[in-house]
Amino acid sequence: MKPQADFGVVGLAVMGANLALNVESRGFACAVFNRTTEKTRDFAGRNLGARLVPGYSIREFTASLKRPRKIILMVKAGAGVDETMAHLLPYLSLGDVLIDGGNSYFRDTDRRVAMMAARGIRYLGCGISGGEEGALKGPSIMPGGDPVAWKHVAPILKAIAAKTEDGPCVTYLGRRSAGHFVKMVHNGIEYAMMQMLAEFYDLMKAGLGMSPEEAQKTFAKWNEGRCGSYLVEISALVLKYRDPDTGKLLVELIQDEAAQKGTGKWTSQSALDLGVPVPSITAAVDARIISGYKKDRVAIARVLPAKSRRLRGAGARQLEGACYAGFLAAYAQGLHLLGKASAEYEYGLNLAEVARIWKGGCIVRSRILDVLRRAYRAEPRLAHPFLAPVFRKALAPVTGSLRTVVSAATAASIPVPVLGATLSYLDGFGRARLPANLIQAQRDHFGAHTYERIDRPGVFHTKWD
Ligand code: NBP
User: Fold this and answer.
1) What is d(CA 449, CA 316) in angstroms, rounded to the nearest whole number?
2) Position 220 pLDDT exceeds 70
3) What number of other Cβ atoms are within 10 A of residue 381's Cβ?
4) Which residue in 151, 120, 338, 320 sits closest to 226, CA to CA?
5) How far apart are alpha carbons 242 and 239 in whole angstroms?
6) Nearest CA to ligand 1 atom 30
7) What separation in Å is there between the alpha carbon of 131 and the centre of ligand 1?
8) What is the side-by-side order of every strand in the sheet holding 30-33?
9) Is the CB–ligand 1 distance for residue 13 below 6 Å?
10) Residue 332, by phi and psi: left (phi above 0), alpha (psi -120 to 50) or beta?
11) Residue 49: other Cβ atoms inside 10 A
C-alpha cells in the first residue's frame, strides 16, 4: 500500500473515533485501527468518503502512514497501552513518533519514554481533556516527552486543539511525563470543582430550600459572572434535563454514588510524595469514596442521623462568593503541586502556559484561569499562587463568604467536605504561626526527634519527664 495518511489513531472508542474525525476535518488524511476489527469496519462505514484510511491489521495500518509515522494511541490506560505498543513496535521505523493520548499514570509514561527512546522511537505522553465533544471539536492537549517528536506533530496537534483568543490550547510542556503529570493534576482540580458544585447544589436545596429549577437558574446566573466555567455551565444544563420516560428531572433520579477512574487519587498520592498539600482534591476523592458506601450510609442514617437543617446567615450571594473562593483555592493547590513537581522531576513547566492551554476545550476551563495566567506571567517562579498580587486581589474579598457558608453549613449539619477543607487550607497558609510547636514537643518527648527554638539557633532535645 502506498503510504498516504498524515496521522494514525489506534483505538476507536469515543475519544479515538472523535479525535480521528477531528484530524480528518482539518484536512489531514487519518489512518485508523482498532483491536476489534468490527469497530474499524463500523467506523469506516459510518464515515464513507472522508479522508479516513481504515487498517484491518497493524501491518496494513502502519504501511498506510507517511514517514516518519505519527501515531496516537487512544486505548484504555494501563496494560492496554503496553500491549498495543508491543504489537506496533515490530512495524515501526527509527524516528517514528508514538503518542499516548490516554490518561496514563505518569510513572508508566516515564518508563515508556525511556523504553521507546532506546529503540529509536520518539514518544510523547499526551494528556487530552474535553471529553468526547472536545475530542471532536477541539480539546486541550498536554504533550510532554521527546521534544523532536513535538516538532513533527505540532502542526497537526495545533490544528485539532481548541482555540481561544490566546492561541491553540496545546503547547510542549516538558520532558518525560510532563504532559501526563499536568493532565493528572488537571483531573485532580476537576474532582475538587465538581464536588464543590455538588456541595453548593445540596446547600441550595437542603440549606436554602430552593427547588431544583431555582438551583438550576442560580448556576446559570453564576456562569455569566466570575465563576463562569464549563463545569458550572454543564451543572446548569444537567439540572434542567427531564427524563423522557417519566418527565421528571433526570438528575433527581440518579443514584447518589460517584464513580472514579483513579486520576484524582493519583493526584493526592503524588502530592503526598512531593510534600504538597492538596486538601480540596483529597477531600473530593474521599467524598466520592463515602458516596460509594451507600448501604452503610443508609444503615447509619437510621441510627446516627445527620439531620440537615436550613442555613442561617448565608444566602445565594455568599454561596457565589464561596464558589469563587473555592475555585481559586483549588487551582492554587493544583498549580502549587505542578510547580513542585516541575522542580523535583525537572520538567521545566511554564505554568502561565499551562493556565493558557486550559482556557479552552478542557473540563477545567474557566474565567479564573486568566487570574492564574497573569500571576505566573508576572512571576514564573512564584512559590505559591497566594503570593501573587493579582491572586490575592481576587481571593481576599471572597474568603469571608467561604467562611460564612462553611460555618452555616456546619451548624446546619450539611456536609461540605471540600469547602471545609478549602477554608482550612486558606486559614493554614494565612497563619504565620501554627500549633506545630506542640507536635515538635510531642515528637521530642516520645522519640527524641529534637526541635528548633524561636529564641536561639541550634537543635535541641529535652528530657521532658
Ligand atoms: P476506553 O478507555 O474505554 O478504551 C477503549 C479502547 O481501548 C477500545 O478501542 C479498546 O479496543 C481499546 N483496548 C482495550 Br480496552 N484494551 C486494549 C488492548 N489490550 N489492546 C488494544 N486496545 C485495547 O476508551 P475512551 O473512553 O475512548 O478513552 C481512551 C483514553 O482516553 C483512555 O485512556 C481514557 O482514560 C482517556 N480519556 C477519556 C476521556 C473520556 O471522556 N472518555 C476523556 C479524556 C481522556 P476494543 O474495541 O478492541 O475493546
Assistant:
1) 49
2) yes
3) 9
4) 320
5) 8
6) 102
7) 12
8) 52-54, 30-33, 7-10, 70-73, 97-100, 122-129, 140-145
9) yes
10) alpha
11) 5
| 175-213 residues labelled b (16+ CB within 10 A) or e (exposed) | bbbbbbbbbbbbbbbbbbbbbbbbbbbbbbbbbbebebe
In eight-state DSSP terms, residue 203 is I
- Contacting residues for 253 by C-beta, under 8 A, at least 6 apart: 243, 246
Please choose from 32, 35, 41, 76 the residue to mutate so as to test ligand 1's pocket, defined by most ligand atoms within 8 A of CB.
Answer: 76
Tell me the C-alpha to C-alpha distance, in Å, between residue 2 and each of 65, 114, 168: 8, 31, 32
Q: Which of 241, 154, 225, 234 is nearest to 190 (CA)?
A: 234
Percent of the chain with pLDDT over 90: 98
Cell numbers describing residue 51:
479522508
The number of the ligand 1 atom at minimal distance from the alpha carbon of 139 is 44
Render pLDDT for 331-374 as a digit per residue (tens, 0 to 9): 999 999 999 999 999 999 999 999 999 999 999 999 999 999 99
Which amino acid residue places its CA nearest to atom 31 of ligand 1? 102
Q: Please report the atom of ligand 1 found closest to the CA of residue 261.
A: 35
188 in Cβ contact with 263 (< 8 Å): yes
**141-169 pLDDT per residue, tens:** 999 999 999 999 999 999 999 999 999 99
**What's the one-letter identity of residue 436?**
A
C-alpha 102 – ligand 1 centre gap (Å): 7
| Cα–Cα dist 433/419, whole Å | 23
Pocket lining: 18 vs ligand 1, CB cutoff 6 Å: no
Q: How far is the CA of 129 from the centre of ligand 1 (A)?
A: 14
22 pocket-lining for ligand 1 (C-beta < 6 Å): no
> Which contiguous run of DSSP H or E holds residue 324?
helix 316-345
Does 128 sit in the ligand 1 pocket, CB within 6 Å?
yes
Q: Which residue, judged by its Cα, is nearest atom 7 of ligand 1?
A: 75
Q: How far is the CA of 268 from the centre of ligand 1 (A)?
A: 24
Q: Which residue has the cell 510532563?
A: 178
Phi and psi at 401, nearest 5°, equal -65, -40
- What is the residue-averaged pLDDT of the chain? 97
Tell me the CA–centroid distance for residue 367 and ligand 1, in Å: 31
Q: Do residues 70 and 50 touch, judged by C-beta distance below 8 A? A: no
Residue ranges in 275-315 assigned as alpha helix (H):
279-292, 294-303
- Residue minimizing CA distance to atom 19 of ligand 1: 80
Q: What's the pLDDT score for residue 1?
A: 63
Q: Nearest residue CA, atom 33 of ligand 1? A: 102
Residues with a catalytic annotation lie at: 183, 190
Which residue's CA is minimally distant from atom 9 of ligand 1?
Answer: 11
